[in-house]
Amino acid sequence: MSTVISQAFFQHALLAGTFIALACGLVGYFLVLRAQIFTGDALSHVAFTGAMAALAGGYDLRLGLFAATIGVGLLIGGLGRRGRADDVVIGSVFAWILGLGAFFLTVYTTSRSGAQGGAGTSVLFGSIFGLHGNQITVAVAVAGAVCLIVLLIARPLLFATLDEAVAAARGVPVRVLGFMFLALVGACAGEATQAVGSLLLLGLLAAPAGAAIRLTDRPYRALALSAALAVAEMWGGLLLSAAAPKLPPSFAIMAVATAVYAATFLVRPARAAHPATA
């Protein structure tokens, strides 16, 4: 295990994974608090479709990842109410997105798979141990920017989340915050897909936040705890995969995240947040 940890690919994965997990923990907290988990699920499929579209067109898959997830996130917000994603809107678009992804996958595998034969699989299941060079730089930069923006808008976003009507009456730009948040979810989804894959993306967004909310009813403490749990679960998954090479890193990360969330049921659930505390 010590030999694997000393390798450059593991250190690169640890660096990129730390920033990706931190961003997922912060964004995921508000995603759970705003009851928009279905949005994260939809964007995980959008990430696959966008990546396949970019590869089918001969472009870098990251271009498709970010363009699709951020664009569709904003589109969903625009069709919803006050920038919030609407489940009916998401459900209406969901099947079409999946079908489009299958179409681009077919185009890619039949015409361009010779150049990057395993790219489709890496999009579905992640390839964090395969990140290197420019990919590491982009991952750290994007995740760092997402974290910074979330922290800057955390207070008004929390206000708009807990009491939308009062926040709007107080002059909080609820709709703008809704769009900004969905753009952040899209960027986070595009980035995290490279680490855990589009199929497992939702777990990295939801599990740490869900555990944090069960452990504390204080919003800012839960936000910090969600980020800390996400990073710890990323590290734990990478170390588990290093100790047992037959375990894919994506599976190991999700296994640790699921175990942590399940463990919170052994702890007394957090009380609902008191309005004064919120």
Describe this structure in words.
The chain has one domain (about 1-265): ABC transporter involved in vitamin B12 uptake, BtuC, CATH 1.10.3470. It has twelve helices and no strands. α2 crosses α10 and α9 packs across α10. It is globular. The relative contact order is 0.18. The chain has about 280 residues and is an all-alpha fold. It is found in: Cell membrane; Membrane. It is a multi-pass membrane protein. This is Metal ABC transporter permease. Keywords: Membrane, Transmembrane, Transmembrane helix, Transport.
The gist of it:
With 278 residues, the protein is mainly alpha-helical. It is built from 12 helices and no strands.
Class by SSE composition? mainly alpha
What is the correct CATH architecture? Orthogonal Bundle
Instruction: Specify the overall morphology.
Output: globular
Strand content: under 5%
**The CATH fourth-level homologous superfamily:** ABC transporter involved in vitamin B12 uptake, BtuC
What is the count of structural domains? 1
Helix content: over 70%
Query: What is the CATH topology?
Result: ABC transporter involved in vitamin B12 uptake, BtuC
Low-confidence spans: pLDDT under 50, at least 5 residues? 272-278
Number of helices: 12
Give me the count of strands. Answer: 0
Rg measurement, Å: 19 Å
Mind describing the biggest β-sheet?
none
What is the level 1 CATH name?
Answer: Mainly Alpha
Question: What's the N-to-C terminus distance?
Answer: 45 Å
Q: Name the average pLDDT.
A: 83
* Topology pattern, helix = H, strand = E: HHHHHHHHHHHH
